[in-house]
Amino acid sequence: AQSVSQHNHHVILSEAASLELGCNYSYGGTVNLFWYVQYPGQHLQLLLKYFSGDPLVKGIKGFEAEFIKSKFSFNLRKPSVQWSDTAEYFCAVNNQAGTALIFGKGTTLSVSS
Amino acid sequence: GAVVSQHPSRVICKSGTSVKIECRSLDFQATTMFWYRQFPKQSLMLMATSNEGSKATYEQGVEKDKFLINHASLTLSTLTVTSAHPEDSSFYICSALDRTSAAKNIQYFGAGTRLSVL
Question: Which of A4, A61, B25, B69 is the most exposed place for a label (fewest CB within 10 A)?
Answer without folding.
Answer: A61
